[in-house]
Amino acid sequence: MLAPVWAPLLLLGAAAAVLMQGVPIFYRAERLGRNGAVFQMLKVRSMVRNAERLGPAVSASDDPRITRIGGLLRRTKVDELPQFLHVLSGRMSIVGPRPEAPAYLRYYTPEGLRALQAKPGITGYGTLYFFSAERGIPSADFETRYIREFLPTKLLLDERCRLDLQARPFRTTVLLLVLTIAAVLRRGSARFSPAQLEARFLR
User: Fold this and answer.
1) Could you give the 3-state DSSP secondary structure of residue 130?
2) How far apart are CA 169 and CA 163, in angstroms?
3) What is the pLDDT of residues 84-96, one digit of tens each?
4) Which of 47, 62, 108, 174 gives 112 a disulfide partner, CB atoms 3.0 to 4.6 angstroms apart?
5) For 38, left (φ over 0), alpha (ψ -120 to 50), or beta?
């Protein structure tokens, strides 16, 4: 499933990571899966070792825990590629609500709880929203602002993603793949703003 595209990129990213920051290559993050079941989500490690003990589960782009090569892996989303293995195993889907850390379940809205009925995805409306939302926010304030400002809208978008995938699976999948590729390619210039995404998907 898209292996000719993601597998070589994953190998390059993993090689760069191990050369520049050592082992372990991969990081296992606890995330909420379908129906709230907790699973270990794989990423290429982009932070210092034991980063989860040094700060919150969410991170701003200027978080001091992020390594130099880790910043590049994050900007290009190569750090997310190991999640295709979860797609192959049936734990995740390519498109769907973006899984959250269990620590944030207490802040879930009714819409967010309904979104847990779907398999989590590598990309979704919430992913595109967070793509832009993290810019320019100091890491010291990031978790508080994430919970208060971003998480409620992200959960609305996650539920909208679940509903759209139920009603129009092919159209929604193609749309989100195109938007995600465009967002990655346009990292250095204009990107999808939170206002644009809210206007497009929360009308």
Assistant:
1) helix
2) 9
3) 999 999 999 999 9
4) 108
5) beta
